[in-house]
Amino acid sequence: MSLNEVVSAERPHIAFFGLRNAGKSSLVNAVTGQQLAVVSDVKGTTTDPVKKAMELLPMGPVVIIDTPGLDDEGELGELRVQKTREILAKTDIAVLVVDGAQGLGRQDRELLALFQEREIPHVVAYSKADLLAGRLELDGSSIYVSAHTGEGIAQLKDKLAAFTGKAVNPRKIVADLLEPGDLAVLVTPIDAAAPKGRMILPQQQTMRDILDAHCAFVTCQTEELAQTLKLLAVKPKIVITDSQAFGRVAEATPPDVLLTSFSILFARYKGSLPTLVQGAAQLAKLKDGDRVLISEGCTHHRQCGDIGTVKLPGWIENYTQSKPSYTFTSGGEFPENLEGYRLVVHCGGCMLNEAEMKSRVGRAKKAGVPIVNYGIAIAQMHGILQRSLEAFPEILRLLDA
User: What is the CATH number of domain 175-266?
Assistant: First the structure.
């Protein structure tokens, strides 16, 4: 896999923030060497976040994001500012662009405080350095730059490169559970919601992780699992299933073979598994009218029998013998304030980077609202959560706590 084939969710997300006309878009273009953003002397030219997955030396594969000005005005301006704040949730590294002639203003300082509160590595870039008559002495987290002359651009990229290594996820999806030569079985239902002609992203990434561990895998649909296991000359080390098939797959998988789901693996991969496992206990406490948020990180056409809007509510109501009230969100939509909800049920988050998934989990914890993901919730409701976590003894202990 070349660097440019790294999926966007795995690339460090570098976002440029600042006030209107601070020079964000010009700096983005100078750093990337492309006309990524429209540049104008008119304030508010950037009306929506502009994202670009690219390879940027010396950093490697990244996602660059140019955001609207935080001081945008009017009703539309407020919506753009909200979009900018949403970008914060997925930002691995932030660049605060400050007009060098104006210096740090109130809104710049508020943004810096948000970076610090969310522990986002950041650089302050004082723009338009070629127009300045005098300069302040800066600390190591700040730099003077000029998109016009190129001053400071290479140094800014070096500062960003120093952060990108820390932003790359060092964890494995499943490879650390395997020894070279092991065999895994992947259960991947092909139903109305499955994309035509290809596998979905978490399945692709898991396959690649298994191959990188010098192991092999066999893929089948739910109905073929029992026969597939009979055909194998060796017993598989692990069976990994799509969450919605958890119950049937558990019945067909021998007890001495590890069993888990793509959703659980990705929760561990993105660092949220302990919190999500603890959130599973809230399912049994739901009552009529309790507000439940069901959220997906990607956007797709809703199918008949959709897992998020149809199957999960049905399983929840059967499990709890109650009728909660549901709110559904997808893509970048996720409430900033979760107060009033009794539970958040989130997808596996394969299309979200680690920063955004942690931000969503963090918002739930801040509001005191339990959060669980699809795979863990389904395992809990089918009575197989402990079975599905046997590969992770340190997580299993949370169920006994």
Answer: 3.40.50.11420
Q: Which amino acid is at 175?
A: A
Phi-psi region for residue 181, left (φ > 0), alpha (ψ -120 to 50) or beta? left
Predicted pLDDT at 40:
44
In sign, the C-alpha dihedral spanning 305, 316, 256, 271 is positive
Encoded tokens for 340: 């009033």
In this structure, of 23-37, 93-107, 188-202, the range with the lowest mean pLDDT score is: 188-202
Taking domain 3-167, whether its CATH number is 3.40.50.300 is answered by: yes
Q: 305 pLDDT exceeds 60? A: no
Q: Which two tokens stand for residue 181?
A: 């030569």
Amino acid at 353: N
Lowest mean pLDDT among 122-126, 152-156, 192-196, 274-278: 192-196
Instruction: Tell me if domain 3-167 and domain 273-381 are identical in fold.
Output: yes
Could you read off the pLDDT of 3-37 as tens digits, one per residue? 445 667 778 899 999 988 889 989 999 998 877 65
Cis bond upstream, residue 313 (ω within 30): no
Cα separation, 101 vs 162, in Å, equals: 28
Number of other CB atoms surrounding residue 243 within 10 Å: 24
Considering the segment(s) 273-381 as one domain, its CATH architecture is 3-Layer(aba) Sandwich (3.40)
CA gap 355, 371 in Å, rounded: 16
Burial class for 321, CB neighbours closer than 10 Å (0-12, 13-18, 19+) = exposed
Q: Where are the alpha helices (H) located in 94-133, listed in sequence order?
A: 106-117
Residue pLDDT, tens place only, 41-90? 444 444 467 888 888 887 788 999 998 877 655 555 566 667 777 888 88
Phi, psi dihedrals of residue 361, rounded to the nearest 5°: -65, -40
**Residue 95 corresponds to which tokens in the numbers above?**
């660049």
0.70 surpassed by pTM: yes
Q: Tell me the β-bridge partners of 183.
A: 216
Contacts of 31 (CB under 8 A, 6+ apart): 56, 64, 153, 156, 157
